[in-house]
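Comment thread on ticket #2218

A.B. wrote:
> Attaching the input chain for the structure job we discussed in standup.
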Amino acid sequence: MASLTSDSPSTVRPPFSLIATSVAGALLGAGLAVDGLTLRIFANPTSPLGALGMWTGGRPLWALDAASLGWPMIAIGCAWLAVVLGLWMRLSWIRRVGLVLALLTAPALGIALVLDLVALAGLLSPAMMRWVASGEAARVV
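C.D. wrote:
> Ran it. Output below, let me know if you need it in another format.
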């Protein structure tokens, strides 16, 4: 049996940016998915995030029908949850997917925007780049 050395990828502590991105991405993803389901199931829902944060109460701030955004919200929310899992698995391509999702959810207002900015900052941090790169190097060896 091989023993773990201090420099092996399995003993590397996850950076704070990974933890912050994971919490923000999981909350954003779960919130978007639940809000999307709520929009599809109920006629006039109220939610903590609002439909991508664009609604306060039941009145849209933009000229969009809230019910039509239900399925895209579910898809983007599930994709955020997949990004969080992929980051912990150190998949090299998942960081780019996370950046695209952060840009897609950037028009959000309220708490969704705050979570999006935290996730975006974490995805752009050098520590996150090193984390993902160390996983890719471990798979090559």
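A.B. wrote:
> Thanks. Noting for the ticket: The beta strands are 55-56, 59-60.
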